[in-house]
């Protein structure tokens, strides 16, 4: 073995877990269920937490009010139901000095878990706030980690699988052995020394060891930084390579925007000047970035991410006008007809008095914004198609009807795609291909919700990223509350009545019925009936759901906008794009049945004007722990990135516990929220390590791209 080169990640991937002591066929099978087959998989099974045993206290010395960690064994477990149907599990735990009572509310699964620890006589770490009640020490809902019989100052706690009966201490043992056996050869570091030094990163070998067996918690940070950077760098290398390759092989349009020679010189500037408000700093930066991209000969491929209400439309319109300024056309594609029409309307009003010089007449003509959807009547459609083909219509807004056969553009220069996650990647490229004469139009993708998938695309997609991280001034933050039961409902109706009395409007979102659209409509209808006949009697309440014909739908939304309708009882059809600044209350019934991203999106329908807004999340009964965590997260924060993380955490945990195949994305440690800076640095470094044609200059790094998940790869290729 002596003289063998250090192990690469690919080497580690070739070594099966079966070669470890204690991993026989049954263990191998169980591990496979978690997606762990090789030593690489095992070494990237990172600790979920660490316990610092130097902070360990003995039960007898615990004082009320302090946070403490005790190592103990489970002596007895009891579970019962208490008032309101809540479950309560109590466990008595002991160490050599005394006993402590732990009480868990709404965690019925605890009793089985704790019983298991009792049978196995495992040592557990209990971490929480000490209370003293009638002279007895106790903790409510403490964190419990089984640690087996491990010693050492810092004990890593691994995600374990109860279903597969794989415990955290087994993981620790196997990982320890894998690390020991790789010590002679060491783990290779493909990152150029100069980059490593510049970013202050430790070597890979040390990072892999320290993340699992740190001497103290400082080591963990340094190790994590390095491993996070590696994950992100792999992805960025793939992206930048793809991007450079595209840029090298595709012909874009170098728009003459901001130049006196432009066909419609100064159009973007005139548009911005004519807005009834000044741009936010973020909007200004975004427009500068976009205009910069437009001027370059390579096609733009940029993601505009901004929370609901951040003012993405202004940036989109500026991009579209950039195309027109240089004599080209622009299209905006929206996910639904309602949204396409709304966009059309708001863009028309934004463009107000702007006009174009018309060379043929030596006069001016207004900037026409055409709207093309599946419902556009045949005659109008013919006229629009003709206008797009001969270039007399500079701007068009539509649904996927825009990419239907027969739509040809004179010179499509900019494409804006709204609410990206509703479109398949294929549709996006189809629109891009609609550009004429072989030139690829510039593409701007707008997204409001950094749902994990979208958040992932920020990193996975080969898109440059612009973030609108500033809301227009004068918005009062939305107060979000989570209310339970009949009292909760009463409070919600009270809030609706107050809003209406103040001249505002309210949305009420009906329970989600995922299994059937028909049942959902029925539930919306009965909710409407119940409210009109009861708690909201006397108010103008309208109903909106997916089965209502489009024309009527538009009429309802319009009446709501104008205030003839004060309360809108709706299904999630209002999720995207409905923009009524006077709406200040959002009530979501059975909110515990919705996902985080969906609630965040729904909440974005209020808080769009100057009056203070409220979002009331109702649940009929106290929800389970996972739903509770979702609702708590929404109450706590409006930061879409943070919510996306929570969502990811909750769902990720779910699959691990279920013992099903874990999503094997290459992003194990990196968090898109916490590690945003590393994303940027990784992108920079990737830019340096790739040549103009997309060649990666360090072969060992190029080889590692093989580790990227097949799904990620597919996405990269298609976008
Ligand atoms: P998004 O699409 O990001 O959710 P919109 O573009 O629909 O947001 O804008 C939300 C609202 O904010 C609109 O009513 C718009 O007129 C208004 N708005 C946009 N930019 C500004 C600004 N700079 N100052 C004040 N209001 C703005
Ligand atoms: Mg919008």
Distance between the termini: 45 Å
Class inferred from helices and paired strands: alpha/beta
Strand content: 15-25%
Radius of gyration: 29 Å
Backbone shape: flat
Give the number of DSSP strands. 25
- CATH superfamily assignment of the largest domain? P-loop containing nucleotide triphosphate hydrolases
Question: What is the number of helical segments per DSSP (H or I, 4+ residues)?
Answer: 24
CATH architecture of the largest domain: 3-Layer(aba) Sandwich
**Annotated CATH topology of the largest domain:** Rossmann fold
Distinct bound molecules: adenosine-5'-diphosphate, magnesium ion
Whole-number tally of structural domains: 4
Largest sheet: 8 strands, mixed
Helix content: 40-55%
CATH class of the largest domain: Alpha Beta
Model regions low in confidence, pLDDT < 50 over at least 5 residues = 421-428, 652-664, 713-719
* Mean pLDDT score: 84
Structural description of this entry:
- With 719 residues, the protein is of the alpha/beta class.
- The protein is flat.
- The protein has 4 domains: 50-157, Beta Barrel (OB fold (Dihydrolipoamide Acetyltransferase, E2P)), CATH 2.40.50.140; 227-249 and 659-718, no CATH class; 267-468, Rossmann fold; 478-637, 3-Layer(aba) Sandwich (Rossmann fold), CATH 3.40.50.
- It contains 24 helices and 25 strands.
- Strand 22, helix 18 and strand 23 (567-570) form a beta-alpha-beta unit.
- The strands form 5 sheets. Strands 2, 3, 4, 5, 6, 7, 8 and 9 form an 8-stranded mixed sheet that branches. Strands 15-16-12-17-18-11-19 form a 7-stranded parallel sheet, sandwiched between helices. Strands 20-25-24-21-23-22 form a 6-stranded parallel sheet, sandwiched between helices.
- Adenosine-5'-diphosphate (ADP) binds next to helix 11.
- Residues 277, 279-280, 283, 306, 308-314, 448, 472, 579, 581, 608 line the site of adenosine-5'-diphosphate (ADP).
């Amino acid at each position: 073995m002596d003289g063998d080169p250090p192990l690469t990640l690919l080497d580690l991937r070739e070594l099966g877990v079966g070669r470890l002591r204690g991993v026989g066929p049954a263990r191998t099978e169980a591990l496979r269920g978690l997606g762990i087959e090789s030593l690489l998989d095992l070494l990237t099974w990172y600790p979920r937490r660490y316990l610092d045993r130097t902070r360990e206290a003995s039960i007898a010395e615990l004082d009320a009010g302090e946070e403490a960690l005790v190592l103990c064994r489970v002596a007895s477990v009891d579970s019962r139901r208490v008032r309101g149907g809540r479950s309560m599990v109590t466990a008595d735990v002991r160490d050599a000095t005394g006993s402590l009572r732990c009480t868990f509310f709404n965690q019925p699964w605890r009793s089985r878990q704790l019983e298991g620890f009792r049978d196995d006589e495992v040592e557990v770490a209990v971490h929480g706030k000490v209370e003293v009640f009638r002279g007895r020490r106790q903790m409510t809902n403490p964190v419990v980690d089984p640690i087996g019989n491990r010693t050492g100052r810092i004990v890593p706690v691994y995600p374990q699988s109860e279903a597969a009966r794989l415990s955290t201490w087994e993981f620790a043992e196997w990982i320890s052995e894998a690390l020991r056996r790789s010590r002679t050869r060491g783990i290779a570091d493909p990152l150029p020394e100069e980059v490593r030094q510049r970013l202050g990163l430790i070597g890979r070998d040390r990072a892999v060891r320290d993340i699992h067996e740190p001497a103290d918690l400082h080591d963990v940070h340094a190790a994590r930084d390095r491993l996070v950077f590696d994950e992100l760098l792999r992805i960025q290398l793939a992206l930048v390579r793809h991007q450079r390759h595209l840029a090298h092989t595709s012909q874009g349009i170098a728009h003459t925007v901001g130049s006196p020679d432009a066909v419609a010189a100064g159009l973007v500037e005139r548009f911005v000047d004519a807005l009834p408000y000044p741009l936010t700093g973020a909007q200004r930066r975004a427009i500068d970035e976009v205009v910069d991209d437009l001027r370059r000969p390579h096609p733009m491929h940029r993601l505009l991410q901004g929370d609901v209400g951040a003012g993405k439309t202004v940036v989109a319109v500026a991009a579209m006008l950039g195309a027109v300024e240089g004599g080209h056309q622009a299209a905006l594609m929206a996910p639904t007809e309602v949204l396409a029409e709304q966009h059309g309307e708001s863009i028309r009003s934004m463009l107000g008095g702007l006009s174009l010089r018309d060379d043929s007449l030596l006069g001016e003509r207004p900037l026409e914004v055409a709207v093309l959807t599946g419902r556009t009547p045949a005659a109008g459609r013919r006229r629009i198609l003709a206008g797009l083909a001969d270039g007399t219509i500079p701007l068009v807004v539509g649904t996927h009807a825009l990419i239907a056969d027969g739509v040809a553009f004179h010179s499509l220069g900019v494409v804006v795609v709204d609410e990206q996650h509703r479109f398949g990647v294929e549709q996006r490229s189809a629109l891009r291909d609609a550009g004429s004469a072989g030139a690829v139009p510039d593409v701007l993708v707008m997204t409001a919700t950094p749902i994990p998938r979208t958040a992932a695309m920020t990193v996975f997609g080969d898109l440059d990223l612009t973030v609108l991280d500033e809301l227009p001034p004068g918005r009062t933050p939305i107060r979000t509350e989570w209310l339970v039961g009949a009292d909760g409902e009463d409070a919600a109706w009270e809030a609706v009545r107050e809003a209406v009395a103040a001249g505002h409007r309210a949305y009420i979102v009906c329970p989600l019925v995922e299994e059937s659209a028909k049942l959902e409509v029925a539930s919306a209808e009965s909710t409407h009936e119940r409210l009109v006949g009861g708690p909201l009697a006397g108010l103008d309440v309208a109903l909106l759901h997916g089965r209502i014909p489009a024309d009527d739908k538009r009429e309802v939304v319009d009446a709501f906008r104008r205030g003839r309708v004060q309360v809108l009882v709706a299904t999630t059809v209002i999720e995207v794009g409905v923009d009524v600044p006077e709406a200040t209350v959002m009530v979501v019934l059975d909110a515990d049945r919705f996902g985080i991203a969906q609630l965040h999106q729904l909440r974005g329908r209020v808080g769009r004007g100057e009056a203070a807004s409220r979002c009331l999340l109702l649940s009929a009964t106290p929800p389970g722990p996972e739903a509770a965590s979702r609702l708590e997260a929404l109450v706590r924060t409006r930061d879409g990135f943070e919510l996306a993380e929570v969502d990811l955490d909750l769902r990720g945990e779910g699959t691990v516990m279920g013992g099903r195949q874990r999503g094997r994305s290459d992003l194990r440690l990196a968090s898109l929220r916490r590690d945003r800076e590393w994303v940027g640095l990784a992108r920079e470094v990737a830019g340096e390590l790739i040549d103009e044609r997309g060649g990666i200059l360090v072969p060992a790094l190029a080889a590692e791209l093989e580790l990227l998940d097949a799904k990620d790869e597919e996405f990269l290729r298609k976008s």
